[in-house]
């Protein structure tokens, strides 16, 4: 039987933590800014102040409240979550990270619906956390891609509790500094004769920036002025990246761009986006590169091949090896007719399949369903994603 929902005020308590990805923050910023009139949003930030700074940088405009004000008495932020449930009286708890899911589960007095967005394929350890939370409370999981959805279903999650809601990519043009891409290059210390400029994309434990730098070193043999751009990770440069930087034979080849520079801004300054991954990664940088008209060359892993169709919207290496990736770069550099067809089709795919309003509509439908069926006894029904293109299931 189809359920029709009465109009009512939605109060959504969003919970962030240190595992909340940049792509998830971008989705949250869009969602809180464009949901239906009358909806109220409160964003609770668990843990370090940096998480709140990243949320603000992503454009999250709803009122944010830190959940570490009790210090040693509440290191996990659980008490703050329970307090927010009492004072804000949400209709939905929406978790955007692993610790957020645990904290949302610990709010045992809450009787409304619980939803969690997963913007990356969960690791085995993450799946254990999700399974433990699901044994205590009913959670609906919004997967940002079909690979995430498949991982959840393969892990035994009930089909009626898993939905796919893809991120929306805005068609609004990126505001570039005066002087355009040239000004960005100048600010990064890139000389006029430098190139090609390889922007290394993808974040996550399976991102292989070392592969990307090896590719740059190989390409440098053909083009002596090759430069590689790495965006500083959200929470700073770790020891692994420091070791990688120090091991570079040509220290002038690598450019570390501040994290505060938006990804799409960097995409306008680069010549090629390299996605070097050996497993699941965040895909936001791929979408931003495609939207900016930057050609993408990646490794043949599932999360990349779901977005990039070889020869249609980008190029995929035959193997997950630096030499194989470099051969695709050489192929691209040798054929001047490849760039515009690839980037035009990539941009059309992104704006056709990842529309902001579609994402917002589907989240609103999820909230409405969970308001009247918080235990999800009925399968969740969302509006059809009419922008999906045959052959692309992300």
Question: What do you see in this structure?
Answer:
- By secondary structure, the protein is of the alpha/beta class.
- The protein folds into two domains: 11-168 and 355-372, Glycogen Phosphorylase B (Rossmann fold); 180-352, 3-Layer(aba) Sandwich (Rossmann fold), CATH 3.40.50.2000.
- 40% of the residues lie in helices and 14% in strands.
- The protein has 15 helices and 13 strands.
- The chain has helices at 22-34, 49-58, 78-88, 98-106, 124-136, 146-154, 180-187, 209-220, 239-246, 263-269, 284-291, 302-305, 322-334, 339-353, 356-372, and strands spanning 11-16, 40-45, 64-66, 92-95, 113-118, 139-143, 162-164, 197-201, 227-231, 254-257, 272-275, 296-298, 315-316.
- A seven-stranded parallel sheet has the order 3-2-1-4-5-6-7, with helices on both faces.
- The two termini are 29 Å apart.
- 45% of the residues are buried.
- Mean pLDDT is 84; it is low at 1-7, 69-73 and 388-394.
Features:
elongated, seven-stranded parallel β-sheet, alpha/beta, Rossmann fold, 15 helices, 394 residues
The CATH homologous superfamily of the largest domain is termed Glycogen Phosphorylase B
Strand percentage: 5-15%
What is the count of β-strands? 13
Based on CA atoms alone, the radius of gyration comes out at 22 Å
Shape field: elongated
CATH topology-level fold name of the largest domain = Rossmann fold
Could you name the ranges where pLDDT drops below 50 across 5 or more consecutive residues? Answer: 1-7, 69-73, 388-394
- Biggest β-sheet: strands ordered side by side in the sheet: 3-2-1-4-5-6-7
Which CATH class of the largest domain is shown? Alpha Beta
User: How much helix, percentage-wise, in residues?
Assistant: 25-40%
Number of helices: 15
- The total number of structural domains is 2
Helix and strand pattern: EHEHEHEHEHEHEHEHEHEHEHEHEHHH
Q: Would you tell me the overall average pLDDT?
A: 84
Structural class: alpha/beta
């Amino acid at each position: 039987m189809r359920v029709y929902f009465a109009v009512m005020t939605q109060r959504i308590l969003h919970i962030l933590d240190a595992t909340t990805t940049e792509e998830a923050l971008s989705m949250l910023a869009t969602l809180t800014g464009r949901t239906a009139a009358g909806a109220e949003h409160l964003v609770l930030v668990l843990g370090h102040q940096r998480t709140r700074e990243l949320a603000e940088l992503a454009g999250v405009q709803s009122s944010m409240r830190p959940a570490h004000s009790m210090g040693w008495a509440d290191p996990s932020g659980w008490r703050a979550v329970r307090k927010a449930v009492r004072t804000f009286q949400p209709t939905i708890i929406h978790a955007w990270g692993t610790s957020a899911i645990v904290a949302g589960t610990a709010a045992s007095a809450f009787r409304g619906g619980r939803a969690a967005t997963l913007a990356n394929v969960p690791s085995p350890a993450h799946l254990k956390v999700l399974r433990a939370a699901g044994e205590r409370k009913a959670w609906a999981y919004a997967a940002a891609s079909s690979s995430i959805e498949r991982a959840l279903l393969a892990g035994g999650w009930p089909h009626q509790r898993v939905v796919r809601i893809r991120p929306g990519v805005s068609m609004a043009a990126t505001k570039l500094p005066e002087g355009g891409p040239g000004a960005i290059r100048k600010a990064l210390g890139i000389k006029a004769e430098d190139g090609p400029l390889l922007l290394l994309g993808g974040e996550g434990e399976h991102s292989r920036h070392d592969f990307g730098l090896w590719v740059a070193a190989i390409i440098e043999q053909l083009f002596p002025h090759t430069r590689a751009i790495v965006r500083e990770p959200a929470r700073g440069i770790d020891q692994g990246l420091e070791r990688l930087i120090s091991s570079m034979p040509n220290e002038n080849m690598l450019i570390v761009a501040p994290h505060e520079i938006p990804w799409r801004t960097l995409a306008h300054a680069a010549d090629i986006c390299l996605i070097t991954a050996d497993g699941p990664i965040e895909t936001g940088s791929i979408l931003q590169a495609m939207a900016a008209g930057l050609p993408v060359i990646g490794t043949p892993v599932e999360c990349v091949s779901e977005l990039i169709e070889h020869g249609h919207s980008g190029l995929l290496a035959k193997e997950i090896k630096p030499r194989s990736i470099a051969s695709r770069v050489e192929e691209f550099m040798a054929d001047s007719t490849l760039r515009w067809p690839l980037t035009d089709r990539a941009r059309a795919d992104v704006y056709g399949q990842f529309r902001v309003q579609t994402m917002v509509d589907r989240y609103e439908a999820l909230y409405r369903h969970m308001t009247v069926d918080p235990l999800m006894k009925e399968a969740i029904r969302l509006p059809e994603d009419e922008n999906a293109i045959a052959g692309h299931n992300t």
